[in-house]
Design goal:
single chain; about 170 residues; alpha+beta; Phospholipase A2; 2 domains; 4-stranded antiparallel β-sheet; 4 strands; DUF5679; PLipase_A2_dom_sf
Length: about 170
């Protein structure tokens, strides 16, 4: 999904899979050139994502660079102003809410073996077999594995108890 006529501006741009938009050296192909400076900033943002696999770096570096690049556009056309007005708040919202990195408060998880909240290393955000989001990691003090569920089961059916004699 892209902004109209754009090749890179929008979520889910297929850069290296399917009908690839990039050459192996991460330069764009002739048929997928950015159409304006907003699309060019999106291209730079997408290649930054390809080069950096760490979510924290992506959020702090790539998103920040894109916002700075959009702010640095001199004499934007009306179309670029409108597109910039769509893209900037979206990236800022994604930075704040959507694709967050694991923060320091997430690294303190209760350890059953230590019987206290301890720091955790090698934290990974994953899902269980029944699709519940979970944090997995290793206790820094004792080395045991730790888990913490991130959400609640939403579709749980609760049947009320029936009173005797009713």
């Amino acid at each position: 999904m892209h902004l109209p006529r754009h090749n890179f501006t929008g979520p889910g741009t297929q850069l290296l899979w399917g009908k690839t938009r990039l050459n192996p050296d991460l330069s764009y192909k002739d048929w997928s050139k950015p159409i304006n400076r907003v699309d060019e900033a999106s291209y730079n943002h997408d290649t930054c994502y390809l080069k950096n696999k760490d979510t924290k770096i992506r959020n702090e570096v790539c998103d920040k660079n894109m916002i700075e690049e959009l702010d640095a556009i001199k004499n934007p056309t009306i179309r670029e102003r409108i597109e910039r007005g769509i893209v900037k708040p979206t990236i800022k919202a994604k930075k704040m809410f959507g694709m967050r990195s694991l923060e320091a408060k997430d690294s303190i998880i209760y350890c059953v073996k230590c019987k206290s909240h301890t720091k955790t290393k090698d934290i990974k955000e994953t899902v269980t077999k029944n699709n519940r989001p979970i944090l997995k990691g290793i206790c820094v003090q004792c080395g045991s594995k730790k888990n913490r569920f991130l959400g609640q089961i939403i579709n749980r059916k609760v049947t009320p108890l029936k009173k005797k004699g009713s």
